[in-house]
Design a protein that fits this description.
Immunoglobulin-like; 3-stranded antiparallel β-sheet
Length: about 220
């Protein structure tokens, strides 16, 4: 019996070793799995924040680019100053001054320009039937009445320019019969930054009051 007692004591000691090892492994695995979702959530939040910032920056850059492109185009205000004088018993000289103010940030380069007179009163003969019948003088595809032209002028202003914040005036001399009491004065200046004949159009109704004929 004394010889069997050590063997009996050693067996329980050996059986405890694997039991302790088996309990240790699950605790390590559980700790590792529990930490992973937190890192993934942090990574997703960071990615979403970066994407939002990138979107904001892209929109800001696009807005700046559009504003920069718009600021590179010329902008101007056009004003008509119309005066007249009777040259004789039959003819009036109508002088048009077109004042151009460069309100943009770039140089305003001038090109082709023109001015003209259209008769309004007395109503031209070709428009009287429609007026007397009280039918529409303006067609469905038109925004203005086609008043007949009395006179027109063209000016080549290539090489002329107006600095930002500055103004300049250009003059046109036109003629109309003294029987005409009201005219539509128009001007056109081509925009060199636009294709074709796009430009600035300005029109003014002007009443020709009776004045004494000039001595010639």
């Amino acid at each position: 019996m004394p010889g069997s007692s050590p063997a009996a004591q050693s067996r329980p000691a050996l059986s405890k070793v694997p039991t302790t090892s088996t309990q240790a492994h699950p605790s390590i695995t559980t700790t590792s799995v529990g930490d992973s979702p937190g890192w993934l959530k942090y990574s997703k939040d960071a990615a979403a924040t970066i994407q939002s910032l990138a979107t904001i920056v892209a929109l800001a850059v696009a807005a700046w680019w559009v504003l920069r492109r718009r600021r590179t185009y010329p902008r101007a205000n056009f004003t008509h100053l119309v005066t007249h004088v009777a040259l004789n018993d039959e003819l009036n000289l109508i002088r048009l001054a077109v004042e151009i103010e460069n309100i943009g940030d770039v140089l305003l380069r001038l090109d082709e320009s023109s001015a003209g007179l259209q008769q309004v009163v007395p109503v031209p003969d070709q428009l009287r039937p429609a007026l007397q019948a009280r039918t529409a003088l303006i067609g469905s595809s038109q925004s203005e009445i086609e008043w007949p032209f009395l006179d027109a002028r063209r000016r080549n202003l290539i090489g002329r320019y107006i600095e930002p914040g500055e103004s300049a005036a250009f003059h046109f001399e036109l003629f109309a019969s003294r029987s005409v009491r009201c005219v539509l004065v128009y001007s056109y200046f081509r925009n060199v930054t636009r294709p074709g004949d796009q430009g600035w159009n300005t029109s003014t109704l002007y009443e020709i009051k009776t004045v004494n004929a000039a001595v010639v």
